[in-house]
Amino acid sequence: MARAVRFYQSGGPEVLQLEDVRVGEPGPDEVRVRHVAIGLNFADTYFRQGYYPVPLPNGMGVEASGVIEAVGSNVDGYTIGDRVTYTGSPLGAYSTERVMPVGSLFRLPVDITHETAAAMTMRGLSAAYWLLKTNPWMKAGDTILIHAAAGGVGLIASQWAKLLGLRVIGTVSTEAKADLARAHGCDEIIFYRREDVPERVRALTGGEGVTTVYDTVGKDTYEGSLKSLKRRGVLVGCGTASGPFPPIDALQLAIQGSVYFTRPALADFIADPAERAELSQALFDHVASGRIKINVNQRYDLEEAVQAHRDLEAGKTTGSSIFVVR
């Protein structure tokens, strides 16, 4: 029998429960996937807490990699034995196997492992659309600021930014995380717990500010992120680790230098098949070639889901975290 992590009420990590479940046969436009590795993302905590409301009870997780074991009707392009990865709804990736709509799948290149895929599909596609789609005015030579630069998405985004010819300033909390961020492309480091971020950004940019800020933290960093922008810069609200972004004051954007704020979602950048193919192909090519390296720094069993969420929310992780199906 398959196993899956489920939750029956919103709350802390303790609401997660590992259960035996029955996985049926795939229906039209569906396949059954046996998971090899599963992504652990900060967004998972938003579903668990109820910040992203979903019907309860429900599964947990939106990203995994595995092998197709059964194919439903009307499925074109996938067969039993194919290696696949995915990110997106419905919830339920924290499981040993599950039925998935084929529209959510990506075919996994043979030179990318399942563990790497589970650690990079959501994070890598996020980095791709941040850098390639959210600021159409950004160009080689510009300076950007990436919050949580030693995290899973931060490490990928920093490497990708260097491929685009950008200068990268990253924020981190510790010396160890600073070393990791530097090794993956950050040109300058700001220790956000002991330094004034916008003040340091101005010092590092000759008083001008950065072209783009990628802010995965939210409530605690929003004001500093705005103040770090150059005239007509773009603040990309990528996540809310410290809580939701505050209501936007349009006048504040004007006073700050006619800056822009956007709160994008990955789903809206991979909804179009052509754009989805463009971003995924770019990601897979960079990873397969070694131009972008994926750091899997934490591995858990599904039985450790509660501890994994505690570690994630406590800031104890670096790079990407995954569950390994044994």
Automatic annotation (TrEMBL):
Superkingdom of the source species: Bacteria
The protein's name in its UniProt record: Quinone oxidoreductase
Residues passing through the membrane, by range: none
Gene3D superfamilies given in the database record: Medium-chain alcohol dehydrogenases, catalytic domain, NAD(P)-binding Rossmann-like Domain
Species this chain originates from: Sphingomonas brevis
UniProtKB keywords: NADP, Oxidoreductase
The UniProt record lists the keyword Cytoplasm: no
Domain annotation Enoyl reductase (ER): ranges: 11-323
Keyword field contains Chaperone: no
